[in-house]
Every structure is written in C-alpha cells, then in structure tokens.
Structures
1.
Amino acid sequence: MAQKKRDISENDTSKRLVKNHPEAAVAKEMQKAPERIRDCFVTNLTLLQNGLPLTCEVSPLSSLGHGVYELKIKGRPGWRCIYYTGQPGLIYVLHVCEKTTNGPDRQIKNVVEKRLKTLRSELKAV
C-alpha cells in the first residue's frame, strides 16, 4: 500500500521506543482487532520505530495537534492505529479502532483528544 504525507520526524534513523497510552486500554483495543490487522499495525510500528518506510498508508491528524498520525487499513470495516511522535525517541500509540463511517469519526477524535491531553499532562509532570 502507498504511503502519503510523511513528516520529517518519521525519517529519523535512530531507534525509538513504542509505548501504549493508556497501556491497558490500547493493549485491549489491539487484541480486539483481527489478527491480520493487528500484525499489520505491529509490523508498521516496528518499521516506524526503526526509521524504515511503512507498508500501509499514514496521514497526519493535524486537527489534533502536531505529531499525531494515523495508520490506515482500508476495507469494510477500515481500521486505524493513532499514534503520537511529539516526544524525542518515543512513539505513543493512543488508540486502535475499527472505522465504519465515511469521513471524520467524532468518537475516535474524542477518545484521542482525551488520551493525548492526559499524556501531555503526565509528560509535563515529569
């Protein structure tokens, strides 16, 4: 599948650590995904972690802030893996979900906004 709209920060060749935020919720969401979808997301996160080209489509979610991206797997239903790259050396997976609507999905946006807000406040506290 084709890539598009890759940010310069994704071309960094240094290895980055992938974390889930919140850990239990994202792990549960990932387990709900079908095995082939889960494998695709894990493979692409590993490629991203190592600064290699991705195999599925990726788009920035600029409405949610700088450094927020989604991996897209199209189909019926489609799947999304939303992650944040705003911290040097880290990739935070914020949400993994099935996408059944055409166009923007308000529920997905609300979940990601909430998780991103808590992540940023936790990072500030450190």
2.
Amino acid sequence: MIERNHPVLSVGAQCRLLSISRSSFYYAPQGETEMNLALMELIDKQFLETPFYGVQQMTWHLRNESHAVNVKRVRRLMRLMRLMPIFQKPDTSRSAKGHKTYPYLLGGLRVDRPNQVWCADITYLPMRRGFLYLVAIMDRFTRKVLTWHISITLEADFCADALKEAIHRFGSPEIMNTDQGSQFTSFAWTDRLKRVGTRISMDGKGRCLDNIFIERLWRSLKYECVYLHAWETGSQAKAGVGRWNTFYNHQRPHAAHGGQPPAVVYFTSIETDQQVQAVA
C-alpha cells in the first residue's frame, strides 16, 4: 500500500496514515544463520532415522555430537521445519484455531485400487543458504506422486494449488488423508475436497505413522536426491525435485508392487478397471 516514490506523500507520511511505524516498512527479514541451517539439516537427517525423537531427545543427540544447543533453539527449529515426533501430545503440526479437524478413516480399510485414497504431506528442503517447503500428493495404493509444489512459506495456498492440479489431472479420490496441520484444515483445502465429494481423513495427533507411505517418500527423496546436492536457488531445487520425481514415478522399482514403478502400476490398474467396467 506504500509507494516509495509517491509524488506528494513521503514514506513517513504514508506510514502515519496507515498507523504503522516507518521501521516496520523498512524491515527486511534476515533469515536463518549458517549455524542454524546446518543444525536444521542435522535435525532433519536424524529425524528420518528416529521419528520418535522429541525436542529434549533431539537436543541431547545434538549435544552428544558436540553441538552446543539448548532446548529453546531446537524447539524453534523443529517447529520451523514442521517436524512432528511420534508421541501423544505434540507441539507441532497443529491446526489453526477455529479450523475444523476430521476423524481418521483409514483404520482397517483395505486400499486396493488407485484413486481410492490419496495422502498429502509437507516436508522441509534444506538448501545451501536457506530452505524451502515441499508438498506432495500421493496415491496410496500405487505410491505414485500425483502432484507436488514448492513454496518459501507455509501458507495454505501452495497446498491448495497442488490439490487443484491433482484433481484436474487425475480426477478426485474417494478419501484424502493428511495430518492436522493448518494448511490441511484451511477452508481452501477442505472446501475443494467437499465440492468434489471426497471424504476427508486426518491422522491422530502425534501419529505421523498414520501417513507412513508419504513419510517413506520423504526419506527416499532426501537420501537419494536432496542430501546429495547443495542447491543455491529455488529454481535449482525445483528442477532437482522434478527430475527425481520423474525417476521415482516411472523408473524406480517399488517393492510393494513386485519391482514395478508406481506410474506403471497406477495406469495399468486404471486401464484394467475401465476394461472390467466396460464388460460389466
């Protein structure tokens, strides 16, 4: 709302009219220090190995590795990275105040066809001088990654955009499962699902294993791609994730399907179902 080169009003005058301080207008976020970025990568790697580590255990681990950190710093970084350890009362991945949460619908459910259940999650991507967030939407039966988007913030828009793209390209699922994070309890996300008739399922608090298949995706992505590179820019990260996703979907053998890549299983299953329906 403020114009730096306004012909009549100075920046100070515009700030006074808007009831904000001039220092707020000129403030530029400094980002994380190199030390914090290095700690975040260490935390991320360890969390993939021990997803049950809470703040205190992660702090002890880092201290045992000769890193001088306190609980407050580790708690802030884990929240920033959106890491949710497996225990009953987590401090992270909370839904926003006033947002509705939904029950977990997958308990005892046999998932045996594509587009029956989709799952979505967000992870942190370390870079040389910062970090990004990645959301992915996966078909639970075939493990195919349907869409993914990268963002510099945790605003709900990039998740909603990924969902819109997935529905446009692949139709709508019967059930969508996520955690209870504010991005997935937002109106933009839930309204889109309701309008296409999809049932909404959400993991129990502190139960990241309810969404275990996409957690395994993050582990593969990070060890096979992210940690092997030190990306400088968002465009490099996007290109790198895109190449790995293509490899994962179309070439990487998957044990759950007898060595077949997820995309082969997905499209073969879709074609088979269509043929069965045509005969019936």
